[in-house]
């Protein structure tokens, strides 16, 4: 009886609100401005590209999520088909991105607080200095992380009620911003009257902005829906719909916000400074003040607190379930994944994540640095999805698939290529730095393998050589690639894209023929056996 009650807690509306609560965070507050600085008016194309990249990746995970509706599912799929090592690399990379999302939302809230214009709020100005969080600001960030954690600590019902309420506010304020800024200052001529004016810095920055301006980061939250798996009502229907609706709504909103930002700027400001020189501390709030809409700037300062707050709460839920799910890989201490009997939440995992989030933000104290770490680590984790879903079709054609992607044979390699390109767009040395952070988790893996007598370790390597080779390949490409992406320019743009596309397709194929039968595949059989398909 207790379990049936639990499965009914998250319906489709709440799921879409939870997805939007994760998707619409600090990205909309900073992304449009940062992307405009990098690519000029052509930044609007960057949002379309970012949406296509994440949408293509999500297509693979809808099939996986409906096949295995379980909490923290994103941490388990790769081990089902390729064994413990690939499962560990994928789940560790994904977990790093999630625990970094908690402090980045806290940093965004604190950064906007530091620019509050009111006399009574002067004490908040000490939170930031030269674009980084100060020690005083760090205490405020820690406070938010604790609050995010406590809101998840007691129950899923509290979480969904809170995020549904906050998501309505988070959608309403950006819509109001679009309407008011458009009415007060609309300069479509800012898009330019020629291709050169539309793309003042060429085509390469359009792709670069997709990753370095937080666009991929703004879209990648669809996995919040996947990770709630077993807590979703009718997962075989609602997982796909929840992801699709939340991605479409947020995508339209982001594109409208980018266009509004471009057309609301005064043409003489662009003429004087160029797009690179447009510098705002609180982009949309500053624009509202410039256009004389002071009440809107107040609302935006409030939303700059509320939007990251809602996203931070959502990601405490997602990251704790991911860490708890990693325990079943048998490479993390078991007590970490203990589920509280009364509230059904992984409380110890939440506390561990909160502590590590505080450590992460103590080292990386700027929004931009944290956004780069999140985007790249997430993309590396996502690379296993297309390989896993195709491998499962070969290994287990008899598995129940409530959602069966009709164009998956095309979408899987396409999404692998797009994820590879977006990883490359993060630019040298970010790509290599994130890969090194991911490799820091391997001592945990090998410690538990040693405790188990290295049983089946050889098979785990057989299923993972393709990923190890891929990480070496993408690291080298990041270093020797074109100057537009901070490389040594040994391979000029756009030929670097061609090399990455061809190389990615080879590694994708290698991955799909490297699947291995392990005890984890039997776990997948047991989970899938509980799925009942209804037309």
TrEMBL record:
Originating species: Weissella cibaria
Coiled-coil ranges per UniProt: none
InterPro entries: AA/rel_permease1 (IPR002293), AA_Transporter_AGT (IPR052962)
Protein name from the UniProt record: Amino acid:proton symporter
Membrane topology: Multi-pass membrane protein
Places the protein is found: Membrane
Cellular component aspect of the GO annotation: membrane
Keywords: Membrane, Transmembrane, Transmembrane helix
């Amino acid at each position: 009886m207790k379990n049936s009650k639990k499965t009914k807690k998250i319906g489709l509306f709440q799921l879409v609100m939870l997805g939007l609560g994760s998707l619409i965070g600090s990205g909309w507050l900073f992304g449009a401005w940062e992307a405009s600085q990098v690519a000029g008016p052509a930044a609007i194309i960057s949002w379309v590209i970012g949406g296509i990249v994440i949408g293509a990746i999500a297509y693979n995970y809808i099939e996986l999520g409906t096949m295995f509706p379980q909490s923290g599912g994103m941490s388990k799929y790769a081990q089902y088909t390729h064994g413990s090592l690939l499962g560990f690399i994928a789940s560790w990379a994904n977990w790093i991105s999630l625990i970094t999302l908690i402090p980045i939302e806290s940093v965004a809230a604190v950064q906007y607080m530091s620019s509050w214009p009111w006399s009574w709020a002067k004490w908040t100005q000490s939170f930031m200095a030269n674009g980084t969080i100060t020690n005083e600001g760090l205490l405020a960030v820690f406070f938010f992380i604790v609050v995010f954690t406590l809101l998840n600590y007691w129950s899923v019902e509290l979480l969904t009620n809170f995020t549904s309420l906050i998501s309505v506010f988070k959608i309403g304020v950006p819509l109001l911003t679009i309407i008011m800024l458009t009415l007060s200052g609309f300069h479509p001529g800012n898009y330019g009257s020629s291709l050169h004016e539309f793309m003042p810095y060429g085509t390469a920055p359009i792709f670069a902005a997709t990753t370095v301006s937080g666009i991929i980061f703004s879209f990648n939250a669809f996995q919040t829906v996947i990770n709630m798996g077993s807590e979703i009502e009718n997962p075989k229907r609602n997982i796909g719909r929840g992801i699709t609706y939340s991605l479409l709504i947020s995508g339209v909103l982001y594109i409208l916000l980018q266009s509004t930002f471009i057309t609301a700027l005064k043409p003489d400001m662009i003429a004087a400074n160029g797009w690179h020189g447009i510098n705002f501390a609180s982009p949309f709030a500053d624009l509202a003040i410039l256009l004389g809409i002071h009440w809107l700037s107040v609302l935006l300062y409030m939303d700059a607190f509320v939007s990251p707050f809602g996203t931070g709460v959502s990601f405490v839920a997602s990251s704790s379930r991911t860490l708890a799910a990693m325990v079943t890989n048998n490479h993390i201490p078991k007590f970490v994944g203990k589920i509280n009997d009364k509230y059904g939440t992984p409380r110890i995992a939440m506390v561990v994540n909160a502590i590590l989030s505080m450590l992460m933000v103590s080292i990386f104290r700027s929004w931009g640095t944290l956004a780069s770490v999140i985007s790249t680590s997430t993309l590396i984790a996502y690379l296993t999805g297309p390989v896993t879903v195709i491998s499962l079709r070969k290994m287990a054609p008899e598995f129940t698939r409530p959602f069966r992607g009709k164009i998956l044979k095309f979408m899987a390699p396409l999404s692998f290529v797009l994820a590879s390109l977006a990883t490359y767009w993060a630019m040298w040395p970010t790509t290599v730095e994130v890969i090194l952070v991911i490799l820091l988790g391997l001592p945990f893996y090998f410690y538990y393998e040693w405790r188990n007598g290295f049983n089946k370790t050889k098979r785990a390597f057989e299923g993972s050589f393709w990923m190890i080779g891929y990480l070496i390949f993408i690291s080298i490409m990041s270093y020797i690639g074109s100057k537009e992406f901070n490389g040594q320019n040994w391979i000029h743009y756009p030929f670097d894209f061609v090399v990455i596309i061809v190389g990615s397709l080879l590694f994708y194929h290698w991955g799909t023929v490297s699947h291995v039968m392990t005890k984890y595949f039997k776990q997948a059989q047991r989970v899938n056996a509980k799925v009942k398909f209804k037309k």
